[in-house]
């Protein structure tokens, strides 16, 4: 299993890139969002990867963070969602958007992805709801780091580093962990955190907002 590759980007297409690692070129399929965030040709790049093996096909898929990789794998467990459809969902929503949509049961958001119909979106929202807390708890995951890539480009006199993706906000994962530790069911806690989340909210603010949503009504 190839879980991560680090090398130099030498070619990009509409849905995949070619990365040179020690003289070997790896063709890696990526989402639109990932493609847009990659550096220019000739620059260093690192991606977490998942190898899809079938009888007549071997394809490598790449992700900037572990949480995005995990969502891709989980989405593929839903009947009707293959590797490309899972990438389409991640392209449309991003990993944070998928976490929010699944936690809230918002199948309409999932249906915005290219090739995802209402029935499949509803199935995904239902089947993955109980799995959302575990992925959300990963936060942004560990990002593909290019610090050690210089080792594979010794022939370059002045190797350049890849642009790093923006770090994910740790507040939702921290708030989710705190609520679960307080005794709330992971699914309920995830839904409350997803509903309460706002850009820039601190962990304490998010916990308080989620607790209000979780408080008994009446």
UniProtKB/TrEMBL annotation:
Domain II: annotated segments: 65-142
Record-linked InterPro entries: DNA_helicase_Holl-junc_RuvA_I (IPR013849), Hlx-hairpin-Hlx_DNA-bd_motif (IPR003583), NA-bd_OB-fold (IPR012340), RuvA (IPR000085), RuvA_2-like (IPR010994), RuvA_C (IPR011114), RuvA_C_sf (IPR036267)
Record keywords: ATP-binding, Cytoplasm, DNA damage, DNA recombination, DNA repair, DNA-binding, Helicase, Hydrolase, Nucleotide-binding
One GO term (biological process): DNA repair
Chain segments carrying region Domain I: 1-64
Span list, region Domain III: 158-218
Gene3D superfamilies: 5' to 3' exonuclease, C-terminal subdomain, DNA helicase RuvA subunit, C-terminal domain, Nucleic acid-binding proteins
Sample GO molecular function, one term: four-way junction helicase activity
Compartments (UniProt record): Cytoplasm
Pfam family, any one: HHH_5
One GO term describing the cellular component: Holliday junction helicase complex
Domain spans labelled Helix-hairpin-helix DNA-binding motif class: 73-92, 108-127
Primary location: cytoplasm
Domain free text: Has three domains with a flexible linker between the domains II and III and assumes an 'L' shape. Domain III is highly mobile and contacts RuvB.
Function: The RuvA-RuvB-RuvC complex processes Holliday junction (HJ) DNA during genetic recombination and DNA repair, while the RuvA-RuvB complex plays an important role in the rescue of blocked DNA replication forks via replication fork reversal (RFR). RuvA specifically binds to HJ cruciform DNA, conferring on it an open structure. The RuvB hexamer acts as an ATP-dependent pump, pulling dsDNA into and through the RuvAB complex. HJ branch migration allows RuvC to scan DNA until it finds its consensus sequence, where it cleaves and resolves the cruciform DNA.
Quaternary data: Homotetramer. Forms an RuvA(8)-RuvB(12)-Holliday junction (HJ) complex. HJ DNA is sandwiched between 2 RuvA tetramers; dsDNA enters through RuvA and exits via RuvB. An RuvB hexamer assembles on each DNA strand where it exits the tetramer. Each RuvB hexamer is contacted by two RuvA subunits (via domain III) on 2 adjacent RuvB subunits; this complex drives branch migration. In the full resolvosome a probable DNA-RuvA(4)-RuvB(12)-RuvC(2) complex forms which resolves the HJ.
Family: Belongs to the RuvA family.
Protein name according to UniProt: Holliday junction branch migration complex subunit RuvA
Gene: ruvA
């Amino acid at each position: 299993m190839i879980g991560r590759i680090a090398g130099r980007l030498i070619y990009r297409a509409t849905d995949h890139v070619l990365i040179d690692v020690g003289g070997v070129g790896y063709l890696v399929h990526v989402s639109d969002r990932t493609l847009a965030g990659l550096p220019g040709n000739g620059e260093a790049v690192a991606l977490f990867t998942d190898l899809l093996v079938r009888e007549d096909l071997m394809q490598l898929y790449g992700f900037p963070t572990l949480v995005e990789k995990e969502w891709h794998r989980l989405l593929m467990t839903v009947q009707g969602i293959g590797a490309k459809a899972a990438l389409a969902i991640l392209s449309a929503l991003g990993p944070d958007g998928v976490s929010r949509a699944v936690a809230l049961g918002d199948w309409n958001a999932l249906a915005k992805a290219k090739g995802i119909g209402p029935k499949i979106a509803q199935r995904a929202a239902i089947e993955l709801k109980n799995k959302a807390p575990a992925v959300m708890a990963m936060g942004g995951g560990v990002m593909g780091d290019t610090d050690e890539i210089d080792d594979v480009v010794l022939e370059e006199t002045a190797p350049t580093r890849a642009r790093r993706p923006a770090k994910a906000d740790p507040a939702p994962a921290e708030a989710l962990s705190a609520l679960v530790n307080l005794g709330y069911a992971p699914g309920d806690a995830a839904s409350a955190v997803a509903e309460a989340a706002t850009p820039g909210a601190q962990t304490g603010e998010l916990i308080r907002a989620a607790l209000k949503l979780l408080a008994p009504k009446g």
